[in-house]
Structure formats: C-alpha cells, structure tokens
Automatic annotation (TrEMBL):
Residues 36-46 have a biased composition (Acidic residues). It comes from Plantactinospora siamensis. It holds the Pfam family AI-2E_transport. The lineage of its organism: Bacteria, Bacillati, Actinomycetota, Actinomycetes, Micromonosporales. This is AI-2E family transporter. Keywords: Cell membrane, Membrane, Transmembrane, Transmembrane helix, Transport.
Length: 401
C-alpha cells in the first residue's frame, strides 16, 4: 500500500488549530477560575453580612439632611422668633397708635366715599373729613379745659378758707391730738417726701404731654391713611393669590363696610347720649352742661361700660351741687341706659353690622379683658368680620366635604 504524504500547508493548519484549541481551553479555565473566585468573594461577602459586615455591619445610605444643619436651622428660627417678639414688645405703644389710626381711617372712609359721590375730588373730600374731625376735637378740648381750669383756680382760692375751717373744727382738733397727726406731718415733711411729690408732679406733666403727643400722632396717621386708603387696600388684596383675589376683594370690602357702618352707628348713639345729657343738665341746672355732654358722648363710644362711666361722672357732679340734683342724675341715667341698651343700641347695631345681642356682649367683655378700651372698641366689628368669614369661607368648605 503506497505511503501517504502530508503537504506542509496542511501540517501547518493542523498545528494552528491545535494552538487555537489550546488557547480556548486556557481561556475557559481562566474564566472558570475567575467565576470560582467571584463566587468565593460573594460567599465571603454574604458570610460577612451574616456575621455583621466585619464588626459593625455595612454602612447605610447617607442622610439627606445633616443633623448639624437641622439643629442650626432650628436654633436660628428660635433666635429670630425671640428677636421678633422683642421688637413687637418694644414697639407695642407705636403699633397700638398705628392700629387706632387705621381703625379710625376705616371708620371715616364711608364719609369720604359719600362726599365723592356728591362730586367732590378725593383730596377735597379727605380734607373736609379731616377738618371736621379736628374741629370736633378742638370743640371737645374747649368744652373740657375751661371748667377744669376754673374749678382748679377756685379750689386754690378757697384752700386757705378750707384750712381755717378745719382748724376751728373741734372734731378735727380732737383727731389731730388723738392720733398725733401734726407730729406725723412734720416728720413726713422731709427732702425725700418733697422729692416724691415733685416726681409725682413731673410724672403727671409727662402723662399729659404724652397723651397730647399720642392724640396728635393718631390724628396725623389717620389723615395719611385716609389719603392713601385705596392704595393700601389694593396692596393688601394683591397679596392674595390671583385665583382667589376677586373673592378676597369682595369679602374684604364687605368687612370694611361693616367697620364703617359700626363707626357711624356708634357715633350716632354717642351724639344722642351727649345731647340727652346736655338737655337734662340745662333742665336741672347743672354747671357746665356742654362739658358734661362731651364727657358722656366720649365715654359712650366704649361699648357696655362707657355709658356707666359717664353716668357716674355726671352723678358725682350732681351730688356735689345738691343731693336732690344727684338723685335726679342717677334716676335719669338709669332710665336712659335701659332705653339705650335694650332699644337703641341693638336696633342700630343690628341694622349696621348685623350682630346679635349675645355676640356683642360677649365680644365686648372679651375685648375689655384682653386689650382694655381698645379691645372694647374693636370687639363688635371683629365679631362681624368673623361671622362673615365663617359664613362665606368655613361653612361652605365644611359642606363640600
């Protein structure tokens, strides 16, 4: 059988195929070895996870907010809140004056609107209302100051006569000797007592000038608020979202109208009380009837308690004149207050702000206990505003749920 010969090219091809097969086997062995290593690593990681990740386990995800940043933000908020509290406390007196001026401007704005409806320009309408307020204030001062000055001067003129009468009184002399009042007075008349008396005089003068400054400040601010009332109102409405701005404007205008109606009603009741007092003082012969009428009208602006304060002042003046006149004053004010509290006041307030009697009484009591006289003045308009907000905002929202 003849011997078969292999060509050199075929031998080379078979050698290359063997080399390539060897390379593939070695690559496969390396891949399997790598897979075995990876499996061992994963088994090790799982064993470490089961064992606690080394000693303390795997670290978790990083926090979104640093605890230091949270604590710093909280502390900064506390500091800013306390600073705001200190600012409000230190500026409380000025803020009260601003609030009173704004409340008066809201109450006087219907008069400006009425004058503008008659054809007056806005500037002239504001000037007319402001001048009327100034004239009323000056009239009240003119009515009150002369009686106070004349009565004080009369008391000082009669003081020596009163002292002589006291010295001649046997009863007074017995009391002086029994309780050693002369020695006590002489021992009390030292430098410290004189200094305290002068301090009291200076404190009284400071109170008077401070009151005048506050009145002038409120008057000037009221005029400015009246002049810029429309701009302030538009700015306030612009703070509301655009989607709800129209509804906020309608509710806000209704609240402002209620405040103005309350001011008109309260002024009407006060003028009626002052006029009735003036007529009564003329009939019974009380001194300074116009001054007493001004006192009653001003105190009657305070709900619930103002009329009683005015009645007490006039009754004291009446008893100082004679006991018959004092009794007549007490009877007159008892009857008038019953008519005002149960007939005039509820009818006027029901027509102006539409607040029932129970709400008005409770609001006035709460206002006096929380904020004093200012709280009593704004209590009824505040209740009217709250009733409107509940009726138009809160109750429909509850019904829709």
């Amino acid at each position: 059988m003849p011997e078969q010969r292999t060509s050199p090219r075929r031998a080379e091809d078979r050698a290359g195929d063997k080399d390539r097969a060897g390379d593939k086997d070695r690559a496969g062995d390396n891949d399997r070895a790598g897979d075995d290593d990876n499996d061992e690593d994963e088994d090790g990681d799982q064993n470490e996870g089961r064992d606690g990740g080394g000693r303390f386990g795997r670290p978790g995800r990083p926090l979104r907010r640093s605890p230091f940043l949270v604590g710093f933000t909280f502390g900064l908020g506390l500091v800013l809140a306390y600073a705001a509290f200190l600012a409000v406390r230190n500026a409380a007196s000025v803020l009260v004056l601003i609030f009173i001026a704004l409340f008066l401007a809201i109450g006087l704005h219907p008069a400006v609107v009425r004058l503008r409806s008659w054809g007056l320009p806005r500037g002239l309408a504001v000037a007319t209302v402001a001048l009327t307020v100034v004239l009323l204030l000056c009239g009240g001062i003119v009515a009150l100051v002369p009686p106070l000055v004349s009565q004080s001067a009369q008391f000082l003129d009669q003081l020596p006569h009163y002292l002589d009468e006291l010295r001649r009184s046997q009863t007074i002399n017995d009391l002086v000797e029994r309780y050693h009042l002369a020695d006590r007075l002489s021992s009390a008349a030292n430098a410290q007592t004189v200094g305290r008396a002068l301090g009291g005089v200076l404190g009284g003068a400071r109170l008077i000038f401070g009151t005048l400054f506050s009145v002038l400040t409120v008057l000037v601010l009221t005029i400015y608020f009246l002049a810029a009332f429309d701009q302030i109102r538009r700015l306030g409405y612009a703070l509301a979202p655009a989607s709800r701005r129209e509804r906020v404007r309608l509710i806000g205008d209704e609240i402002l109208d209620k405040v103005g109606a309350y001011m008109v009603g309260a002024l009407s009741i006060a003028v009626l009380a002052g006029g009735s007092t003036f007529v009564f003082a003329l009939v019974v012969g009380l001194g300074y009837p116009f001054a007493l009428a001004v006192v009653v009208a001003v105190t009657d602006l305070v709900p619930q308690i103002g009329a009683t304060i005015g009645a007490v002042i006039v009754s004291v003046v009446g008893f100082a004149s004679s006991w018959r006149v004092g009794v007549a004053c007490v009877v007159f004010f008892v009857i008038y207050q019953q008519i005002e509290n149960y007939l005039i006041y509820p009818k006027v307030m029901r027509r102006s702000v539409k607040v029932n009697d129970v709400s008005a009484i409770v609001a006035a009591l709460l206002g006096v206990s929380l904020f004093g006289v200012i709280g009593a003045l704004v209590a009824i308009p505040a209740v009217a505003a709250l009733q409107l907000i509940m009726r138009e905002v809160l109750l429909p929202r509850q019904q829709s749920r």
